[in-house]
Structures are given as C-alpha cells and as structure tokens.
Amino acid sequence: MTNNDASKSAANPLSIDNPPTSEGPYQGPIHDPRDEVCNFEILDNFERFNKNNDIYNRGRWDERIMSKKVIDWFRGMYRPDIAARNRDGYTAKDFAFRLGGWVGTNLLIERNIKNGRVDGYQDDIEIYSSVAKHKVEIESPEIMSEELKRVAKLFGAEIIGITSQDERWHYSHWYDADHNAEKPANLPEGLVNTIIIGTTMDHDIIKTYPSATAGTAVGYGYSKDASTMQAVGTFIQGMGYRAVASLNDTAQKVPYAIQAGLGENGRHSMLITPEFGPRVRICQIFTDMPLAHDQPKRWGIKEFCEICNRCAQACPPGAIQEGGPTDQTLNISNQIGIRKWSINNEKCFKFWTNQGTDCGICIRVCPYNMDTSTWLKKKYFRFWVWLAGTHFRRLALWLDVKFIGRERKEPAWWWRGGKDAE
Asked: What is the DSSP letter of 48?
C-alpha cells in the first residue's frame, strides 16, 4: 500500500455512513467452462466480494455487529480467561486448550503485526524464504504436480488439488486493520496457478460442539495449515518460483477447492469432501510454478444436501436455511450474483460471541462427518458416500439417522478419553 493509500485509509475509517466500496458488476469473464460441473450458477449481476463485508471485519466497523461480546470474542483468541466460566466445556482449562490449538496461527499473525500486516487474515502470508535467483527448469508440469503433492503431504497436507487462477473469487478490497478502513487488493500478477491444501479436524472433539473444547480443533486446523503452507511455499520459492500463501485472506477458498476437485459446496456453505466430509480446514497458495491442473468432480453431494436438512434443523440461531440454493442475500456478508446455499452470518456470529467461542454444530451433525479411524469404518464411509451420491440417497440418509449417533457429547467425555461417566 502506498503512502497516499495509507493517508486515504486513515482519513476514511469504515462505518455505516462510510461503508465498504461496491465494485459493481464484475467486469471480467463472468462464466467459466467448469461452472456446470462445479454447480456454480453465476448470474449477470455477479459481484466480487469485498473482504471488509465479512462478518469478522464488520465486527470492527459495523455498529450493527459491534458489541462488548464481539470485542471479548476477539480478545479471547489470545487470552483464555476472557470467557471462562464454571460450565463443562467452557472452563479456564478448556479455553487454555483452545488457545494452545491456535498458537501456530497466532505466532504467524504476530510476526508482522507491527508492520501493519495481519498475515493469513487480512494480508497474504509472507513466506520466510526469498525466491531463488535461478529457476529450476520444469520439463513436465504433470510430473512436477505429482512431486509437489508428495512434498505437501509430507509437510502435513491430507488432501491437495491444483487449479488455475480465477479472479472471480478474489476479494475486491482488503481490510486495513491499522486504520479500520479498506485498502486495495494486493495479489501480485502472473500467479496463474492455485494450490488448495486441506487438513482434518479431530472427529471425537468435534462431537463436543458447541464448546471451547471443540474450538481447539478449528484453531489447530488453522495452525496446521499455516505450517504446511509455509513449508510448501518455501519449497516453491527455493525452486525459483513465486508463492503467495493464503488462509482467510486474498480470496475465497471453497470455490477454488471445488474447482480443484476436492469436493462440493454443502447446505451449510462449507466444503464437503468425499474423504472427510466438512471436517477440513483449507488454505491455498498462488504460484507461477508450471503445474498441471486437477479437474472438478461431482459426488452427488448437492443432491444429497437437497433432501437433508440436518444442519439447518440443528442450528440454534437458525442461520442455515432450508430449501434449495438461492441468489437471495440475507445481509451484506453474502455475495451478490451467485445462486448457492448461503448462511445468515449475522445470526451465526451472534451465537458465537454469546458462547465466547466458535460453533460447529453443523459439522457435527452433517452425515458426511464420519469416524474413519479404523479400516472397517473407512470402508463403510466410502460405501456410504457412494450410496449418498446415487438415487438411493434417501436410504443413505435413513442409515445415518438410524445408526450414526450425532448427539452432542459432553466435553468431559472427551477429557476422559472418550469414555462415558461411570
């Protein structure tokens, strides 16, 4: 950001009277040949999303969202005593556990915070190493892609896909945390390929949602992503190519993951993968390294979600809607011009801040969230995913309702090693 941009930001903090900029209808190509298989229904009024309108940033500038509970929620990411209380799953021990899960991400943020950057959330992640002066020649993008995937999996990736850059999913503007204002998006040009990496969250601890105990899974997932991206990005730059790593900054992750063949969009507006369901954290790396692309696939997940409303029915604030995908925007935290399942972020975030921690009930009750810790359970899950993608999907839903327990487990159950109280 230039000095002029910084001065403009300082003079124009965001507020209801000075809301984030609307870029208007997208001026680039609205449609992509992959849209049909990705289940992307892009409308003529499609607009890129302004990062300042996401619910977390609105908690810093939008008076309709701001509150003491919101402030305490943000502070609680660094201080385990803020929301601790004498309630199972919300004690000081539980919040300290959650803080431990977030430590990798928090260290990433803190290293550049004095330089006006919030790496991984408002700004892309600076890779520790610089780009090597001499590029290693890549004769086969296909072979390089396989080698890169092997590298990424050693560094912690559990699923990985590669696709081309698609600027429709890039945020039109970024958030300037120093001045509580928007700033221009700043992704370098020429990064034509996007690598999507996913890591899993622990199945057993997810059973305790909502609780601070369960929130550890999310924090640790982000921390694993941060470590994996740094390692993969260092490898790419050591080869002489540029790598820009991204967590919740720069661009939307779910559409990119779908284009990279990793899954489909679920009713709860999260990525559902055939390997782990929605129990994944995803991140991405933009690069100019020559790579071969994976292709999007369908597993019948959208069709299954159309008959399954378990996440919508289980959501305490009613933030997840029943019915089919729609282009209706519930508030400014929804994207304009795309027909899909979106959630009411305002209702969702209010429930989070009332709890003092995040919520993942929708992950817990999702039929695609299954225990795959043993060979037999993994076999059953693969069979179930196949069944759910066929015309027998109602049978798959019946099997899940009948035989898979999705009731909340008390956090004390997890602390006892998954054993019920005697």
From this structure: P
Per-residue burial over 356-395, b if 16 or more Cβ lie within 10 Å, else e, is bbbbbbbbbbbbbbbebeeeeeeebbeebbebbbeeebee
3-state secondary structure at position 275? coil
* Spatial separation of the C-alpha atoms in residues 376 and 155, rounded to whole Å: 27
Q: Of 197, 207, 204, which is closest to residue 280 (Cα–Cα)?
A: 197
Characterize the bridge pairing of strands 280-287 and 338-339. unpaired
Residue 286 neighbours by CB under 8 Å, 6+ apart: 165, 187, 191, 193, 194, 195, 243, 244, 246, 250
Q: What is the pLDDT of residue 11?
A: 59
CA-CA-CA-CA torsion sign (71, 72, 74, 75): positive
The token pair that represents 358 in the structure block: 């995040």
- Comparing C-alpha atoms, which of 216, 198, 362, 208 is closest to residue 280? 198
Strand partners, 164: 193
Task: Give the integer Cα–Cα distance in Å for 86 and 90.
Answer: 7
- Using DSSP's 3-state secondary structure scheme, residue 112 falls into coil
Tokens of 323: 């019915």
Residue whose token pair is 């029915």: 313
pLDDT tens string 44-53: 999 999 999 9
Q: Specify the residue for token string 């076999």.
A: 379
Q: How far apart are CA 226 and CA 303, in angstroms?
A: 33
Please tell me the distance from the alpha carbon of residue 371 to that of residue 166, in angstroms, as a whole number: 34
Scanning the structure block, which residue is given the tokens 């190519």? 241
Q: What is the pLDDT of residue 80?
A: 83
Which residues face 119 on adjacent strands?
123
pLDDT over 70 at 287, yes or no: yes
Per-residue pLDDT of 299-311, as tens digits, reads 999 999 999 999 9
Dmax over Cα atoms in the chain, in whole Å? Answer: 66
How does DSSP assign 232-274, residue by residue? HHHHHHHTT--EEEESSSSB-SHHHHHHTTS-EE-TTSSEEBT
Q: Does the predicted TM-score (pTM) go above 0.90?
A: yes
Return the bridge partners of 265, or none.
271
CA 337, distance to chain mean position in Å, is 21
- Predicted local distance difference test score (pLDDT) of residue 6: 46
pLDDT of residue 5 exceeding 60: no
What's the distance, Cα to Cα, between the start and end of the chain in Å? 60
* Radius of gyration over every alpha carbon of the chain, rounded to an integer in angstroms: 21
Q: How many CA atoms lie within 13 A of 107 on its CB side?
A: 11
Distance, in Å, from the CA atom of 238 to the CA atom of 234, rounded to the nearest integer, reads: 6
